[in-house]
């Protein structure tokens, strides 16, 4: 029997709707969610491929790369955590986790006096952000990062602004950035130089959309500019995570890793994000749905449900809470169920 179920794309903070195609109880494909207000029938390739993790999901836990039962991996993880000094344990949570999971991770870390680390692309939260409609309706859009390539359903709003005769100013480190193709002026300079050069052009009908900064000081400079801002994050629920726990800068993350002996990673590929020698950490325990660079170097890997196998909520880049429901049954445990066993 063929079924179509609605969910959200878990790939970036734009929050696009996604339809999942299920045939005889197996997920076989995706197609865009036509009536979804964020993406109105369009998904980028990352969104279309988001089911890959489900299709390649871990069925077994592993200890030192040897497959074991999940219960055995949880017991060993518990022993490692209990035998460490709490101040040497760091718990990683991220925008890959749902609101409900981040609450549970935070409560768990605090009850055990572990360090908690949440990294948000070196960005921070802004309380009042532009909506996607604000981007499409702006008279000038300042684009920092290759949004057309990296976050295409925001990129679509930038194209709409251009069609409405907005001027587009684009900054990217990549001189072949896709966004440059629709920009009136392009820059490959630092963000500081970009703002120095264009500051006089920015007014209250402008929007600055950005997915990176060169340094944390750039965030204060952006905040002091007289127009709406829209930070776009690489993970689906980074904006929501800010409501639950404080984010750390890149330097603070490295400092914390330098003082960590046991690292407990909740559904994050921290090894991919940081240029850091993770062999300095004695034990890495990772809860993950599928393989990534962090699971590859972890001592213990515990499989978790993918977002397709559970209910939850994400907060998208413009601050809207979006709920999603389970689209397929699963034998794996959720992060919250594993936390209860680790407690
Ligand atoms: S823009 Fe982001 S949320 Fe939308 S389909 Fe692409 S990866 Fe998914």
Report what the structure shows.
By secondary structure, the protein is an alpha/beta fold. The protein folds into 2 domains: 61-121 and 239-306 and 331-342, TPP-binding domain (Rossmann fold), CATH 3.40.50.1220; 132-232, Dimethylsulfoxide Reductase, domain 2. The protein has 14 helices and 17 strands. It has helices spanning 45-48, 52-55, 70-83, 99-112, 132-137, 147-150, 152-163, 191-198, 217-223, 238-241, 250-258, 270-273, 293-297, 335-342; strands spanning 2-8, 17-23, 26-32, 61-63, 66-68, 89-93, 115-118, 140-144, 167-171, 185-187, 206-210, 228-231, 262-266, 283-288, 300-303, 312-315, 321-324. Strands 5-4-15-14-13-6-7 form a 7-stranded mixed sheet, with helices on both faces. A 5-stranded parallel sheet has the order 10-9-8-11-12. Helix 12 (270-273) links the parallel strand 13 (262-266) and strand 14 (283-288). The radius of gyration is 21 Å and the shape is globular. Iron/sulfur cluster binds next to helix 1 and helix 7.
């Amino acid at each position: 029997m063929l079924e179509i179920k609605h969910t959200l794309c878990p790939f970036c903070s734009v929050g696009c709707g996604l339809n999942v195609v299920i045939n005889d109880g197996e997920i076989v494909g995706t197609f865009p969610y036509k009536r979804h207000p964020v993406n109105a029938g369009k998904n980028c390739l990352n969104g279309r491929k988001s089911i890959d993790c489900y299709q390649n999901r871990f069925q077994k836990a592993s200890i030192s790369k040897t497959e074991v039962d999940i219960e055995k991996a949880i017991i060993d993880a518990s022993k490692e955590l209990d035998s460490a000094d709490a101040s040497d344990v760091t718990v990683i949570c991220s925008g890959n986790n749902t609101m409900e999971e981040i609450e549970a991770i935070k409560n768990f870390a605090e009850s055990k006096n572990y360090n908690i680390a949440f990294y948000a692309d070196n960005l921070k939260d802004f309380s009042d952000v532009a909506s996607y409609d604000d981007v499409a309706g702006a008279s000038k859009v300042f684009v920092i990062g290759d949004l057309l390539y990296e976050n295409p359903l925001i990129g679509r709003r930038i194209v709409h602004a251009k069609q409405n005769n907005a001027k587009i100013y684009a900054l990217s480190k990549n001189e072949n950035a896709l966004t440059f193709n629709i920009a009136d002026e392009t820059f490959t300079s630092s963000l500081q130089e970009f703002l120095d050069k264009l500051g006089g052009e920015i007014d209250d009908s402008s929007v600055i959309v950005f997915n990176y900064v060169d340094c944390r000081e750039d965030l204060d400079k952006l905040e002091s500019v007289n127009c709406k801002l829209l930070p776009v994050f690489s993970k689906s629920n980074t904006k929501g995570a800010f409501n639950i726990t404080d984010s750390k800068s890149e330097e603070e993350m490295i400092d914390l890793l330098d003082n960590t002996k046991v690292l407990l990673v909740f559904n994050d590929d921290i090894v991919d994000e940081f240029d850091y020698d993770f062999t300095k950490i004695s034990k890495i325990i990772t809860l993950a749905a599928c393989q990534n660079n962090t699971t590859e170097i972890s001592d213990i890997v515990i499989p978790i449900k993918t977002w397709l196998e559970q209910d939850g909520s994400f907060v998208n880049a413009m601050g809207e809470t979006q709920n999603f429901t389970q689209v397929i049954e699963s034998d794996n445990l959720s992060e919250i169920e594993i936390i209860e066993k680790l407690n």
